[in-house]
């Protein structure tokens, strides 16, 4: 072969221009790598799903008549490093050219570029043809300001792609229907059973054990639930349109433990398409177009607020966090605006805590490699922010545990949106809350050891005093933030005794944090 074309594990885009023509001079290369399996401690389902989806993709390319070299993790020739393997392959095949699709992760982009520089190799770069916006989207969309508002960004992308638009205006006369959304789940609301697959990945599971790849979390390797090929990914997308979309926005922020439908409490009306999207098995426009089409054929049962909410996540938030990532890496990874340094509490690894909200959110993450946005943001993220966990430790956890976690999307969400470590670049105020929010949006508190209505004393909900501890210890940082002003007024009005009691309660909880 004259040319090697590298396909990374999250570049499973079957519709890429590369695959439109065939050539015996082109060798496609895919590799299972130790460096990818252990750059952080991953959930076992995540490693299995990536490797299985990669193997399926490679088989599909081969059946379509392309030449492909697939290097398995346990192949004796595998040096477990992307660039060492590439160098060996160049020598072995005598290929003169190497072509790559631009990695989405800074880590891999940097690795390939420095390797090419050091070895005098001229890589020809291609776009992944996946995102709607480029790496430089912030520069393009905000030429005159560094006040990057997601809403502004979203409107531009939506207009450009004419999604839910009519005559240059948003359908329904408004861009955003958030106010209609975000309701608590009523007890009698039917929740659809999640569509799960039963992919047998025992062979890969055995290989991981033999190769000593350390992972976390649980799996039944005979029944991996995640989509691992394009057909399954498309099935999940159709299933979402039919069963999730009608209530997507309305119950987007709700949390429950109740098995209204057996096995549905963890997925609710969420699409669970993030893995299929982030591996590029599905294109965001493809997902959005089928949802919009389904909505337009079912307007009597699906309100505009539902489809708008979904579209905003996929073409707004998802593209926006990527733009933030590429604008601010690599410095972004070191942001720690609030100087938080605490170690991650032990129950993040085993769900063993009396706090029901934390227990359920972590338990399901260990069981399914999945938690929905509000569990990530307002339960585990909120608790870490209130208690001052180090963003480094937290990033590793989020990057490892979730099926959809790839740094370009995990990092801005964790460090930025959830931990305010970027000093408000993404979130205009910190996402913190006491038990009030949990009570309002979910059903966890009713089954908890702690009392959501108590701030101090025996069984007082830790979130309550920790909330005020945060407010107090970051006074300098937030007192003049206009979105936080009200909370400081409330705090300042409290008597010294009340303030002291709250601080003492929180200090006690912080000292015994692993026992909560
Ligand atoms: P749905 O609720 O069905 O939403 C539809 C789609 O919208 C998602 O599949 C996703 O592609 C997109 N989306 C929604 N919210 C966001 C967002 N904030 N940023 C980017 N895309 C979004 N998402 C990841 O894909 N990978 C991560 O590693 C990741 N880490 C996160 C860490 C924290 C602390 C937080 C608060 C959020 C994180 N998110 C991450 C965003 C979001 O929680 C997940 O995309 C979502 O829960 C995936 O489930 P779903 O497919 O059922 O989403
Ligand atoms: Fe969580 Fe507190 Fe509610 Fe318990 S009482 S579920 S700890 S918010």
TrEMBL record:
Coiled coil: none annotated. It comes from the Bacteria. It holds the Pfam family DPRP. InterPro entries: Crypto/Photolyase_FAD-like_sf (IPR036134), PhrB-like (IPR007357), Rossmann-like_a/b/a_fold (IPR014729), UV-DNA_repair_photolyase (IPR052551). This is Cryptochrome/photolyase family protein. The lineage of its organism: Bacteria, Pseudomonadati, Pseudomonadota, Gammaproteobacteria, Alteromonadales.
